[in-house]
Amino acid sequence: MNEVKRKTLPKPVIRRLPRYLTHVHELRHAGREWVSSQDIADALGLTSSTVRQDLSYLDMAGKSKRGYETQTLELVLQHELGVDSLHRTVIVGAGYMGSALALHGALAEHGFETCGVFDKDGRVVGTRVGELRVQPMTELKPVIKNKKVDIGIIAVPVHAAQEVAEQLVNAGVNGLLNLAYAHIRVPDHITLVDARILASLQELAYGIKAVTDSK
Amino acid sequence: MNEVKRKTLPKPVIRRLPRYLTHVHELRHAGREWVSSQDIADALGLTSSTVRQDLSYLDMAGKSKRGYETQTLELVLQHELGVDSLHRTVIVGAGYMGSALALHGALAEHGFETCGVFDKDGRVVGTRVGELRVQPMTELKPVIKNKKVDIGIIAVPVHAAQEVAEQLVNAGVNGLLNLAYAHIRVPDHITLVDARILASLQELAYGIKAVTDSK
DNA sequence: TAGATTGTTAATCGATTAACAATC
DNA sequence: TAGATTGTTAATCGATTAACAATC
To answer: What is the DSSP secondary-structure string of B32-49?
Structure first.
């Protein structure tokens, strides 16, 4: 590292970066060359102040009177997020959700390559999921090592989630995406992101109730 | 409403409620009758202060020296989240993700009943997804009205997401779960929760990079 | 009783917003 | 040039944490 040491961004900022990226990506495809903090704010429901504050963490500068160049902004956002290089994933759990992710083209298109699908159920092992075949758990570690997989996706039932997390960490992944409706504990050096659809639906239920009650 | 008007909870608290619920549900099934704020904090990686602060919003009291009764806590959390009554959903987009959700048993088990799967592609309409058949978009509004559906799940490609959101709102749902990698705009009275797996993976990529860089 | 744990207030910490000089 | 927009500082707002009296 011969760059100036940058401290890690505040959590709320990190969560907004993918949203900026989506929006800027769309703008660029629509042929827009410049975008102002106000435009971004309007599109994403933020204030221009927040947008400028967030973008000031990035390794680029805007221009007075014009804003930010969409092409540069997209590249810099990708770089900051670390999605300018390929990530390799394995999916554990070949149920409906696991299979759907393996087949979901959008992940590959955005730099997340599925390198394997695993299941501990012998009846599922060997069946096809797109171009891949479901492999037994004994193959997990060798595949992760050989293919330099850095992300494990947990798509198993609640009761198996923690154990699978430990197997993945033990096999050498650096990050986990958890789709199971369970709280998973990981060592400090492992990054965990939850993507629990059921929790999102429950949050939604609260929101609906709150709106209804206030009337 | 003859209860004291309760103001809506802070956003961070709302997002923690499903986590408390999962944990308490597990404890109760393991036979635990009481749990302290410290126990919960340890299990979920919070401070006991945060836990007590959060639970003080709920319509229940703990007991000195013992903590919170798990059975009561589970019920009260379910009530506060609004998941003590059935929610009805429709899924728009019968691709891999949409189908996986329709088939995913966990949603129904937790009170979210799938009442319909829709797709605008005529080649997909009529095919089976579990016990349901994919219906054409023309059926969206009648089904939502007749079955009193309150939640719409958006599982379509990016470019169709906003339009589908508008069709769902127009058809009368109160809340939207967005799985598409797009920013969706909704009127004030509609609750929107994003569950974008790609955004979660990008957040994960950032985390991995941050840990790696700091070493 | 002694001690563990709640519920709540006050202090701290962090994130968002407002404001404005600098600049293109 | 005049005006729009950035980048940044300071003010505000909100969330978390610490502390402790009340209580079982």
So the answer is: --EE-HHHHHHHHT--HH
Residue partners of B164: CB distance under 8 A and separation at least 6: B92, B93, B152, B154, B156
Of A1, A18, A103, the CB nearest to B199: A18
**Contact flag A8-B214 (C-beta cutoff 8 Å):** yes
CA A133 vs. chain centroid, Å, equals: 24
Nearest CB partner across the interface for A110, out of B45, B103, B198: B198
Phi first, then psi, for residue B4 (nearest 5°) are -60, 135
Q: In angstroms, what separates the C-alpha of B106 from chain A's closest C-alpha?
A: 8
Write the pLDDT tens digit of every residue in B69-121. 999 999 999 999 999 999 999 999 999 999 999 999 999 999 999 999 999 99
Protein CB footprint (7 Å) on chain D nucleotides: 3-9, 14-19, 22-24
The residue whose two tokens read 């799938």 is B114
- The series of mean pLDDT values per 10 residues for chain A, 215 residues long, is 62 97 95 97 97 97 96 97 97 98 95 98 97 98 98 96 98 98 93 97 96 80
Instruction: Say whether the CB atom of A62 is under 7 angstroms from strand D.
Output: yes
Q: What is the pTM of this model?
A: 0.94
Within B51-144, strands assigned E span: 68-69, 87-92, 112-118, 128-129, 132-135
For the sheet containing B151-154, what is the strand order? B128-129, B132-135, B112-118, B87-92, B151-154, B175-178, B191-194
- Chain B contact set for A197 (CB, 8 A): 101, 104, 107, 177, 195
Sign of the C-alpha dihedral computed for residues A148, A150, A154 and A159 taken in this order: positive
Instruction: Name the token pair of A50.
Output: 């927040």
Residue A124 Cα to chain centre, angstroms: 27
Phi-psi region of B91 (alpha: psi -120 to 50; beta: other; left: phi over 0): beta
DSSP B199: H
